[in-house]
Amino acid sequence: MTAAPRDVDILPTPPMLPGLSQTSSMLEWQQDHAGFFQRAYEQLGPVFGVQLGPQQGTVLVGPRYHEFFFKEVDNRLSVPEQYRFVVPMFGEVALAATDTATRRRHVALMQSAFQGRRLSRYTEQAADETEQWLDSLGANGRFDLWNALEGLAMRIAASTLLGPEVRARIDDFRPLLADLARGMDFVLPPDLPLPKFVRRDRARRLLTEMIQPVLAERRRRSDTSPDFLQTLIDDPGVGDEGDDVLVGMALMTIFTGYITTCAQLAWALVLLLQHPAYLESVIAEVDAARTPAAPGSPPASTRPAVGGDRVPPDARLPRLEWALKEAIRLRPVMSHYARYNRTDIELDGYRLPAGWLTMLCPSVAHRLPELFTDPDRYDPERFSPGRAEDRRHPYALIGFSGGFYRCPGSAFGMNEMRVVIASLLARFDLVAPAVEPLPSFDMGVTRPTSPCIIEYRTRN
Ligand code: HEM
């Protein structure tokens, strides 16, 4: 794929969509990220250039290019330059840390934090939070999808990641996290005096002020809480870097965990409700996994959070898992992944200039017919063992990114989505939204726009 550096300067840069100015291409992208990339791919092929505001980049589509992208990271492709937009939110932590050893240490710590017994405990907590939410809904009614799931995802993130002290103050915490989300911008310089950036900076300050006393109290008590905040406090590496880094990592993890999971969960639920035949098969699977309620127990809507006929948080629900993967395939929540070219790179006859971005676009890549049969069709069984279309290439399904910087919370995100949907289906009959929800990009992820009303009633 590559050639000696001396040949590179004579090569053309990748083709761009004709007739688009800096502003018009930016506007088209802002209105519909996936549609913009799809249009460019259809007109220009698997290697094309884009101009997003002042930044130029190359989008690569297809598993061979995905492999190149993930393998070149921390080599010719660099991470932190592209993650400058998170520095005002969390400081120079994780993917935004400029020092490679520090960045890898932060990511490795997160990778180890969301596995094994800790992961099981977090999943159980997610199930308890979900039952509490369901108990609050009554026997029937309606909820706005994003509003309801955002609240739930934040409560889950708060209790599992930051612990009971922050969970108790969730109502103060929630609008601040939402302000952080709305202040996320991949393109504009992060220090412009815009109202959304002013609110972002205020949110970070107030969130930090909330977490710092918790830290101090935990240290005073030599606490052994099982949440992620305690994992950070106990880690000798992060411990040495000071409280700013520790609080920044805590905020970054809770923020990233809540917003992506919530958006992906919302799409997964909508898609499932829109496909009643497949939904029936998932409900049957969920019912088979339910622990029977004790004889004479009260109706589901009035049962306490613990006990009753709950779906065990660790239940194996393959049909639901395939539906989650299908939602990740059809509605990936990240519009693209970007890395910064440290040097000129030659790729299949093109020059990707130093200073440009190199990008992947999961929404386009997930609809390649050579990987996914009848790719526009909702067909979760494509992930069943006999078909396993995602195994056609190790980088076919990239909704959690890939390589060393692949999402460290992917297993937790999958478990959380599974327990929320299984618990909802176990308790309620749900009605699909009357109109197809349009995607919204206002919070840094692709999510269903509100209002998107879901009706529910207790199952017989
Ligand atoms: C369905 C849910 C989720 C999806 C689709 C998702 C997706 C992603 C993706 C695509 C990336 C990498 C972006 C890149 O390569 O540039 C990422 C990074 C990350 N994810 Fe997830 N994620 C999910 C859930 C979670 C959860 C539950 C957590 C934490 C508990 C989490 C924590 C992180 C962190 C800490 C990073 C690194 C971000 C940074 O350093 O700025 N994610 N995620």
Automatic annotation (TrEMBL):
Compositional bias annotation for Low complexity: 291-305
Keywords: Heme, Iron, Metal-binding
KW Heme (keyword) present: yes
UniProt keyword Protein biosynthesis present: no
Segments for region (Disordered): 291-312
Family statement: Belongs to the cytochrome P450 family.
PANTHER family associated with the record: 24-HYDROXYCHOLESTEROL 7-ALPHA-HYDROXYLASE, CYTOCHROME P450 FAMILY 7
The protein, known as: Cytochrome P450
